[in-house]
Amino acid sequence: MPGSRTPSIVVLFMSAHTRPSLEALIALARDAGREIMAVRDAGAAAHRKDDGSPVTEADQRAEALILAGLARLAPGAPVLAEEAYAAGHRPDLSAGPHFFCVDALDGTKDFLAEGDGGSFTVNIAWIEAGRPVVGVVYAPALGDLFAGAEGQGALRGAFDARTGAERAALSPIRVANRAAPPWRIAASRRHGDADTAAFIKALGQTKEVRVSSSIKFCLTAAGEIDVYPRFGTISEWDAAAGHAVLAAAGGVMNRLTGEPVAYGRAARDFLIDGFVATGGAAAEAETRRILAAMR
Fold first, then answer.
1. What is the CA angle 184-175-217, rounded to 5?
2. Separation CA 244–CA 295 (nearest Å)
3. According to the CATH classification, is domain 183-294 in 3.40.190.80?
4. String of DSSP letters for 14-27
């Protein structure tokens, strides 16, 4: 695992159908985080993409760094990456449902906001047959790093993005698996709506935890949140890495209709039509009951 030295991109050869190492993706996420903080420290300006959302030099530089690293790590493996996709580059999944899913800077609005706590993240995931099986989420301004891989479990640590120094060693995390309420709910700063409010009310006793970006998945994985609902659409690159960490920690993420969330839906423009992520069997059962009643 990465230690106290400044990280550098780990270069390992693998075929497009071989699972990447968690260590390699951790190092790559840390490198991207360092790039993002360099842009932020220099002063970041934004311009608008065709869909009206903001993009900065940090998004572009971090994604270019990640794509170059993945090309060395997994020559020929398809990559679904936010900025590349916005520019018209579609991953070719015809050879098989194995690909990387990347959001180099999740939370650009938070990145640009003055006085923000720094909850924007670097997200890198590896998808196999529609399932995110390896993932890393790094919040460079906070230093928090979460990682997980199927069969290996999930980890949490802290690394200074500017110096590379280790603040907290990577240690195992698990979902809380609480048996009963009050449920701790991930409340978004930007995506509240009537359905979410009705869902939270139906849960009964709750405590809201307000946080942005993919950290919501990670705090569920770490046992600090029990339920994370999202009733609006979300792009696969926004969710895949956090989903992988959550699954590795023992959590579950289902569509609003109850089926597991699947990735690689090119015909749907790689969108997820809402979900509920849960950190334990009791929370999952309760959310299933409520969603069935809401349909």
1. 70
2. 27
3. yes
4. --TTSPPPHHHHHH
Question: Three-state SS across 51-107?
Answer: CCCEEEHHHHHHHHHHHHHHHHHCCCCCEEEHHHHHCCCCCCCCCCCEEEEEEEEEC
Nearest to 253 by CA among 36, 268, 238, 61: 238
> What is the CATH code for 22-172?
3.30.540.10
CA distance 224 to 246: 12
Region of 248 (left: φ > 0; alpha: ψ -120 to 50; beta: rest) is alpha
| pLDDT of 118 | 80
Provide the pLDDT for residue 45: 66
Taking only the tens place, the pLDDT of each residue in 229-262 is: 999 999 999 999 999 999 999 999 999 999 999 9
What are the residue ranges spanned by the domains of the chain? 22-172, 183-294
284: which residues sit within 8 A by CB, 6+ positions away? 252, 254, 278
What are the tens digits of pLDDT across the range 131-162? 999 999 999 999 999 999 999 999 999 999 99
What SS3 state is found at 213? coil
- How many angstroms separate the CA atoms of 283 and 279, rounded? 7
What's the pLDDT tens digit per position in 10-62?
333 344 458 999 999 999 999 999 999 998 888 766 666 656 576 788 889 99
Query: Which residues on adjacent β-strands are paired with residue 101?
Result: 80, 125
Q: What is the pTM of this model?
A: 0.90
Q: What is the dihedral of CA 31, 33, 39, 45, to 10 degrees?
A: 140
Q: How far is CA 2 from CA 68, 246, 268, in A?
A: 20, 21, 37
